[in-house]
């Protein structure tokens, strides 16, 4: 392993690394013996160290050649750190307000040094479990989605720049394959990794594996995921990849990034909000029925899509004479036609987002990796009730996504199922 | 230019090149002073030499850094020869019966040595103009399409192999851009390169530029062309890229190859047969009304799609436990579901093929590059009548492609319009 210049760090060797790396040392001040270092990797894949020095702080993230939460028995290329670093840089350039700055990247060591997103920031998923409202969340995430997706699509890029970026991110194939497996395949077959709240959901899990129409639809989404290089997507934009305060929203962890369908990011975020919604009844005990909070989640779902729609089409209008070659101004030269093509584009994107969002929900209930929203509901029967509603909603969404015309119809369907 | 090892050859320097290249020299025999050499490049882009020696023959094709039929004022990467050579090799491996063997490839010289497809082979387009029936054409082309498209798609390849091939062919971006321009853009706007049979088609050409629904639909096809890496497609599969005898069908000239939508190849071929059909009335004079020949073209269109359907799904069935990761056997494990997913896949592919075919027809009537099928009709008003029917049919096909359920409905619509 040393042969390729890679060493897994621990808290001690990390100090030596920091000392020897000027761009990181400069952030921390000179007293290296007084550094405060804490490994906080609560994620599934990597090691994350918070480093606090006398005059500043940073985070160091290192990828090891396997999946952390499973161990060396599930190998995974550490090259993912390269795609995470370049995506943080690219998305950070396009949307600096919502992406942590990269201070340093070491490709051999698969190591990223980046801004420490300080407390009171917490992981959004934890905030949603705690019932905390984030009034700017939809505004911020829609901004992040609109800017990162628009500017890396053919609406803005030339074919030449687009194809060269597509080629580069084809290199992140191992992470794409992992998504293919855990999102689009395992939940629909018997797999040693699958789990669910047993015995309550045994029949539901089996029903997923026996549902021909569901499998037909998920195959089409999988094809789109594998074949359609629409924009540089984050690739893992669930509520555990977002850190928040009431004023600030920061997107981390784009190691699954590649040129894929935009709806996969939008759907991941909205799908995880829907999971949070259906989990609320499981958190409703002590003093609050979470009724108002559920309304806030619904509003945030609506606002996220509607603001995204507005911002994305505004970027399109603003850049319609820009470098993008998809809709040449000499052809799409009248306002009526411009409106028509945008409506069609956004309608397709909406249906993609619902489909991918639903697929991401299903896999969190009957697949390998579950979400704390449900896992933190101790009483199994209560958890199963929540999960079962979410699963049923996801199945409907996946199969009937093209019958929904706007996000408020989706929200109404959620309320209806929740009655 | 010499700096990168590239020299444009002429008939004289070609002889020296052949002498110095064992893999080519070996095909020809030793009497180099008696070689018969003829430049026959009737195509638009490159130089093609037929070389006949004392004990064998071959063809040499060289790409120059511009588009031959326009000249040095329209530069075009000569790297296209690399993508043509690798595609000939890859498609040749998958379907040796219908692709000429590559004897030699010289990347610096952008030069391919390949099998001479000997007389009585002629270019299919010329045969269609002459009214010659090719009873095996549909059988052969459907075989070529089914094998090359199936085996380079995710129905057969692993994600890993697919993404690595996609990345490589992203390098053929200049040729993709040329297609984007001449097929999906120029016909829908005022462009110096466009031409049509004037004054007869002036209003028709303008109507294409003013048709909002047509432009909406063509934008979606263009996105699919740019974004969807479905299989290694030929990229230029018109009837001028096929050489035929009644017994043999050979596909040449895949310099536009890349990972794109399968429907672009199927559509190119069928669309050019439809052009041939509507051109027949212009060739009907001397002694024959071409009525029976038109019926043969219609039958060939039907047979091409129907045989393709049968062969492609047969390959799918045969390889359903193979390396392909799109439809895992553990999920798509019952015959009913297998049928369902195939029907959906083929339905989408059918509509893609009709859309791309229609776009290729339109561009041949109001865009830069026309087809001999129409160009050889001397009388302008008669030519315009033929072109106008073809154009109207193409517009309907493009806009209403999803209303067609099978190829016989397409054929009936052609007959109906032709009355
Ligand atoms: N820049 C950062 N600032 C503060 N905390 C961070 C930062 N990056 C990661 N973390 C913490 O580390 C955890 C794991 O990081 P993440 O990038 O999601 O790793 P993984 O790829 O293993 O999921 C996050 O949930 C968060 O708590
Ligand atoms: N292998 C071959 N055997 C015989 N003739 C060939 C062969 N390759 C090309 N030709 C002839 O040369 C012409 C131009 O070749 P083509 O590959 O289509 O070039 P371009 O890329 O310029 O269109 C063809 O129409 C055909 O007549
Ligand atoms: Mg994470
Ligand atoms: Mg991660
Ligand atoms: Mg040609
Ligand atoms: Mg062509
Ligand atoms: Mg050519």
Describe the structure.
- The structure is a homodimer of 419-residue chains.
- Chain A is an alpha+beta fold and 419 residues long.
- Chain A has 2 domains: 113 residues, Phosphorylase Kinase, domain 1 (2-Layer Sandwich), CATH 3.30.200; 297 residues, Alpha-Beta Complex (Aminoglycoside 3'-phosphotransferase, Chain: A, domain 2), CATH 3.90.1200.10.
- Chain A is built from 15 helices and 12 strands.
- In chain A, the strands form 4 sheets. Chain A has a 5-stranded antiparallel β-sheet, sandwiched between helices. In chain A, strands 8-10-11 form a 3-stranded antiparallel β-sheet. A two-stranded antiparallel ribbon of chain A has the order 4-5.
- In chain A, a hairpin with a 4-residue loop joins strand 10 and strand 11.
- Chain A is globular and about 60 Å long.
- The interface between A and B is large, with 46 and 46 residues.
- Chains A, B: Homodimer.
- Chains A, B: One of its GO terms (biological process) is methionine biosynthetic process.
- Chains A, B: It is an enzyme of class 2 (transferase).
